[in-house]
Amino acid sequence: MPRDAHACTVVSVTQTPPIASPEKTVEGFVRQYLRELTYTQGTTLERASLNDKYLALARTVRSYLMSRWNQTVTQQYHQQSPAVAYLSAEYLLGRQLDNALIASGLEDVADEALASLGLSLDELRDVETEPGLGNGGLGRLAACFVDSLATMNIPAIGYGIRYEYGIFRQTFVDGRQVEQPDSWLDNGSPWEVARPEQEVEISFGGTTSTTTGTDGVERTVWTPDWSVLAVPFNYMVPGYLNGRVNSLRLWSARATHAFDLKIFNYGDYAEAVRAQTFAENITKVLYPEDSTPQGKELRLQQQYFFVAASLHDFTERLVEDGFDLHRLPERVVFQLNDTHPVIAIPELMRILVDLKGMSWDDAWEVTRKCFAYTCHTLLPEALEVWPVELMQRLLPRHMEIIYRINEEFLEAVRERFGNDEMLVRRMSIIAEHPERAVRMAHLASVGTAKINGVAELHSQLLRDKVLHDFADFYPDKFTNVTNGVTPRRFVRLANPGLSSLITEAIGDGWVTDLGRLSELEPFADDAEFRRRFREIKRANKDRLVTLLDKRDGIAIDPDTMLDVMVKRLHEYKRQLLKVLHVVTQYDDIRSGRLDPASMVHRTFVFGAKAAPGYRMAKEIIALINHVGATINADPVASQAMRLAFPANYNVTVAETLVPAADLSEQISLAGQEASGTGNMKFALNGALTVGTDDGANVEIRQLVGDEHFFLFGLTEPEASAIQEAGYRPSSYYEQNPTLRRALDLIASGEFSGGDRSVFEPIVSNLLYEDRFMVLADFQSYLDAQERVDAAYRDQDAWSRSAVLNVARTGFFSSDRSMQDYLARIWTHAKPVPIEG
């Protein structure tokens, strides 16, 4: 029997034709809009608030996609086509309205229809609040990937968590980050469809016992202590103009018994709702601060909660009745987006062995073929580990399964390599020191069919350093898939001027085949094309001026070079190196070594959030803001340089900032960044890159050419050699007068009201530790910035380089990434066009 489009209950129907979408005309759109305003919002055009008008618009656009959503799910259930299930702790979606408009081809119709009612599409799109479902590159990558899968007609479903308050809304108080709840749901969320009747019970704690069935087979029974309900909320993921609408299913936690009336009637109101509060904590925020035992436990609860609900959902709902789970690998690959969902491996084993009665060996054969793992880091501390004590207490049955997986794996290691106990200790899923803990990356390495890095250099370092023992043991398991970004959102939607120019030059096929951007190469030598390209860049800067003034009260000069560094705040990304460059220029101006009139005038733009418990990252944010305040208030320095740091950087800001940027700062220490995707977005929008040979920078430089990329810094082998020989950062300070002046200026209290103690932790860290070799790369970075200035002075030549950056970076489409996944990892899945 077919299932309904939100895909959860079996419905008995005869061949009922699908309900047609509203008429795709201005008149049809107006009728549907007024219907939504009247019957859903319960108001009239004259009385409606701005939010009413936006919600009616969102639901109108959604109604055009709804029948295709139903058709996609129904067809998929009947055909049972092999699928991809993407498991990710975050999805940084961005606003949904514009994406839905371009995917459905409704932009012009909606604009004209609203105008006929005296309404402005631009005004209404600004009402939408961006969903608080992600943080940085990991979540944005997941959003790009599900967009590409739908556009490429691949049967797929995304699974994640519906965070009530996101990660946080960043504000600045005296230049320091202050976290506020991200109340993104307050004004309604018209893009989600709740399915409370399809809730899944998720259990924790308790004990296990062994019983013998009537067939004489011993089985383990888990008796949990407590449970919560996972309630699904579905989001549409529309393909671009192809009729396919895949699903993103996000889980929200609810208590099994949310309200105790008896206790309430006794007057203990807080205790009456204690269970509800306790359960809902699981999905309150993304990445709860985990420096406390309670925070660690909540994170593990989150991770198990969403993967357990998702595996139940797929195995019980999305496969046909009577499906033989021995054939599950033919039907699906569960892609683990980093280590957060890796607990899914023992959970599937538990389902197959304990609940479905499959033998251990058969279940393990199925499980390891069903999963693939993407590693997104090279930092050892970013590879999650969970204390055995916590895992045992929270998930006792899973701990037993992990022990057995590990025992059998280590037996195989000893058979292959002999009794090399140091090797066995290194490869064990269970770490014994400094505390007994489950190494989730090791579990993923053992329990998956494929492991991929996300850029050529990253994948090589993954094989050679991070997981080298596993690469030796499983040489065919490791592969590379370089990341990509969706051109629909980050060029077609974010940069309409450039999109029109490209389409005029080469046609519109590039939107779904970004490799066709190579056809732009001859236009780099066309003076008129370059002139129009510069005009578009200037118009994009004007849009940014308007946005930052309205949103943040920040004034920037569109006639300056826009030098941009936007990314999650982490020491390895080296925002400090950028700050030292800014401080150096400021010091040179104030000391008379530089004349503001002769300089290339720059506006430095930062955007970054620091994890709430990451003290050094928060200190760096404070330093950036204090340096900016000092420079911007200086009557001489501010003639040539200004610094802007808009709070709460997100996808919506990126869609205006990225197209306006002239210079993209990608300056992590070589060998530290897995890939990066911001570097790709900037290059595709005509910004030139100053960067190290790290992550996907390597591939960008190789594609655009050295003459169109400002390379600096140590290579990964050079950095490793210096560290192994004993890196002494203070020696660079001692030998480089420019560096010494910059650090001394920070230490002097110049940017902290004369208080030398404020930024002393940053200065001391750089002088005596400097784990990510900021001081070692400082001079090379300054030299690169001098080359940037020289190149920018010739605006026509700069425009030529910018056009070539666009023309030569079509490789970095998430569509191409999906093609690589399909060829190397998801070999079972094929495109399935939607009929009708």
- Taken from the alpha-carbon principal axes, the silhouette is globular
Task: Work out the number of β strands.
Answer: 23
| Structural classification | alpha/beta
Sheet of most strands: 10 strands, mixed
Quaternary structure type: single chain
State the low-pLDDT regions, or none.
1-15
Can you characterise this structure?
This protein is α/β, with parallel strands linked by helices and 836 residues long. The protein is built from 34 helices and 23 strands. α23 (575-590) crosses α32 (774-793). The radius of gyration is 27 Å and the shape is globular. The protein starts with 25 loop residues before the first helix and ends in a 12-residue tail after the last helix. The relative contact order is 0.10.
Helix and strand topology:
Blueprint: H1 26-40, H2 50-79, E1 83-87, H3 97-104, H4 107-116, H5 121-125, H6 137-151, E2 156-161, E3 169-173, E4 176-180, E5 192-194, E6 200-204, E7 207-212, E8 218-223, E9 226-238, E10 245-255, H7 261-265, H8 269-272, H9 274-280, H10 293-318, H11 328-331, E11 332-337, H12 344-355, H13 360-370, E12 371-374, E13 385-387, H14 388-394, H15 396-417, H16 421-427, E14 430-431, E15 437-439, H17 440-447, E16 450-453, H18 456-466, H19 468-473, E17 478-480, H20 487-493, H21 496-506, H22 527-552, E18 561-566, H23 575-590, E19 602-607, H24 615-633, E20 641-644, H25 651-660, E21 663-666, H26 678-684, E22 688-691, H27 697-704, E23 709-711, H28 716-726, H29 729-735, H30 737-747, H31 760-768, H32 774-793, H33 795-807, H34 814-824
Helix pairs in contact: 1-2, 1-4, 2-3, 6-34, 10-12, 12-13, 12-15, 14-15, 22-25, 22-33, 23-24, 23-30, 23-32, 29-30
